[in-house]
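Two records follow; treat each independently.
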Amino acid sequence: MVIFSVSWRNVWRNKLRSLVIITAIAIGVSAGVFIIAFMQGISDQRIESAIKTEISFIQLHNPEFEEAQDIKALIENVSEKKKNISEIQNVSGQSERIVINGMAASAETSSGVRLYGINTEDEFKVTNINEKLLQRLTMFPENSAHEIVVNLDNQEFDKVVKADIATLFPELEIKLWTEIKPELAYLTEVMGMYMYIFVGIILFALGFGIVNTMLMVVLERVKEIGMLLAVGMNRMRVFKMIVLETVFLSLTGGFAGIIIGSLVSQYYSVNAIDLSIWSEGLGAIGWGSKAYTNIDFETIISITLMVIATGILAAIYPAKKALKLNPADALRTE
């Protein structure tokens, strides 16, 4: 415990220098936390929008419809199936749909479209487009549909609910939203990867500043370190002392940055960031003109561990320099 106390006191022997590097770390980490929260927020919004307005959490299809988009490949006895699904825990709503693929054309261009015939009474339970009234298609048999979509109370139980539905209806093809639109699941993975790369770059740059600061500390205390070695202090304890000083320096700035970044992210999780200046371009790729930040506890823990790792790695070179000091030569240093 003594070495911890000594290392902490050593951090504040030169308050100005320590405050400068701590401030730099805090600014870098807080910026990283906010950028992660922003990227995570817009990613979650895109997925939520797709689930709420189009695909829902789970879809049931006739396997033949999925394979060839054959409009005759219907799910029969829809009412009974919906009743059975509604009894499954964590299901908050279900609705049947008629699906027709077509083409919209003008004098200049054409584009593929997908038309949905919905049950206007049940659709609002699985999407938020219930304000738009669509007429029921009458060319298909009653009590049949191309797909049944299922909404959940909690996304965490999607695999469990899918398994329960599969047990009830083994003849149907059942897919999660991640299987229906794998690009959305991939978006989450890519965002996560880029977020940590971004924070890694910030910490890598800050690491050079930390190394430089600790080298200055070692050079200023050559005589002191030489004296400690001369009176019999173990070289490994000197190594630990330098490493602990670096980690304390990094953690102080890191914690300050995490707190600042989290507070700013919390503010913008309620008060949207206005992106209306880019609304046209964002709308073309399915993004909204307002962004809300979002960051979870696991991400904060990950950033904290990355800060600690940066501190330890940045301490190795200065600490090795201290270990190479010859006590006799160090004591003669002016």
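The next record belongs to a different protein.
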Amino acid sequence: MGGLFRFALVLFPVAMILIFLLLVRLERHDIEFAKENVKFEREWKAFERSYFPEAAREEEKIAKKQREQAQKLEEKLHKLERKQGRFLGDLESEMKRLSDELDNQKDSAKGGK
């Protein structure tokens, strides 16, 4: 029984190290594959631009429109965030005013008794 326990005690760390090394190797492979994929995409875009200039111009127009839409949406978002901040500030001040008013009413009720 003791021999089996020692064997498992030695085997477990070795197995963990091997699994770790396998994961590192897979991660390196994924990184290399991603680099090759980016390189291929760049080459493909260059090929498309050189052989299909109309499509490239159309794609640039679409990308420009998308950037403009994104910018407009960001501006709207900032406006809404500012409105929300003002609203929350007004709400906090109103809550503080009501809390103070309630405290004053409690104090006056205690003083009147």
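Discussion point: The mean pLDDT is 89. How would you locate this feature using only the token line?
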